[in-house]
Specification:
globular
């Protein structure tokens, strides 16, 4: 069975589960989906085609996100790093967010929370990690500096 006949969860599925206007060939597109939250699609597609699976998750991979009171969220990353982040201190207006719906995205690339209208809002996991892990923030600053001097 080809990689294009698998759903994002790895189970066989017909093309009928795709959004209108999409085809099975869209599954091989690294930009499949509307939220843009799935940067690991290429690695998963390669793995489904028979290449070896990725052996290590990125540092910013979010394993869980949970509302713990007021505007605070407990984040647990896949490498074991845990921290509580106050969204208000990050200048995120939480007044229209249903914070009790906070969770990690299925790909670990964001924390997801629903707004008052039922829309899912994505908070990038790398941004969140940089606000609660000074070593990670320093690595990001160094990487950005290297890119800007090239």
């Amino acid at each position: 069975m080809s990689a294009s006949s698998y759903s994002r969860t790895g189970t066989a599925s017909p093309a009928s589960d795709l959004p209108a206007g999409r085809t099975n060939s869209d599954r091989d597109n690294p930009h499949f989906g509307t939220s843009g939250e799935e940067p690991r699609t290429i690695e998963v597609t390669r793995w489904l085609k028979g290449d070896s699976a990725p052996t290590e998750l990125p540092t910013e991979h979010l394993a869980s996100a949970q509302h713990v009171g007021k505007t605070k969220v407990l984040l647990r990353f896949s490498d074991g790093h845990r921290a509580t982040v106050d969204l208000a201190k990050l200048d995120i207006d939480t007044s229209l967010l249903k914070l009790d719906t906070m969770r990690a995205s299925s790909w670990g690339s964001a924390a997801e929370v629903e707004d008052a209208n039922g829309h899912t809002i994505h908070l990038d996991s790398a941004v969140l990690r940089s606000h609660c892990d000074s070593r990670y923030a320093a690595e990001l600053r160094k990487a950005i500096a290297e890119l800007t001097t090239q």
